[in-house]
Specification:
By secondary structure, the chain is α/β, with parallel strands linked by helices. It is built from 4 helices and 11 strands. Strands 1, 2, 3, 4, 5, 6, 7, 10 and 11 form a 9-stranded mixed β-sheet that branches. About 40% of the residues are buried.
Length: about 160
């Protein structure tokens, strides 16, 4: 990503949405972007792992974990699967674990924090549904842009912004 999210916002203004939540940068890539895919799950990462096990083709998985920090939704093994399958990043409205390993992977990771406690494995969740996080609707097919300044979202009707 050549331009920062601040530069993109200056150029495109209110045609893009800005996420108000202050996510932590936890992956090896601080700036990343790509088409939006989504998972909605709570304390259960089976569906998240299933999606990241498919070809990512440069997409970013946006996970609505309900903002919970009680259980980690992604750790080193799932993050390594994402890298292997060509995902550009993962944004989790919830917790991750294995911070030190994630920081060394070539993957953008933003989350609220970390917790060593594992998720449950019930297989409950939804894939590619619109999710609302930080006052922004993430719609599959839109585009997300993330860096150390924050997260911007362009809807599916917009062409990807010139980076």
């Amino acid at each position: 990503m050549d331009l920062s999210t601040a530069d993109l916002y200056d150029q495109f203004g209110d045609t893009v949405q800005s996420v108000s939540i202050q996510f932590q940068d936890l992956g090896g890539e601080q700036a990343f972007s790509g088409p939006i895919r989504t998972v909605k799950c709570y304390h259960d990462n089976v569906v998240l792992k299933s999606v990241l096990s498919t070809p990512g083709a440069g997409a970013v998985l946006v996970v609505d974990g309900g903002g919970s920090l009680e259980r980690a939704l992604m750790g080193d093994m799932i993050a390594e699967i994402a890298v292997k399958n060509g995902w550009n990043g993962v944004i989790i409205n919830g917790a991750i674990r294995d911070r030190a390993v994630l920081a060394g992977l070539p993957l953008g990771v933003k989350a609220l924090g970390s917790n060593p406690r594992k998720s449950v494995k019930n297989g409950v969740g939804e894939i590619d549904v619109p999710v609302a996080i930080g006052g922004v609707i993430f719609t599959p097919g839109g585009t997300v842009y993330a860096d150390t300044d924050g997260i911007l979202v362009a809807g599916p009707a917009m062409e990807p912004l010139d980076m």
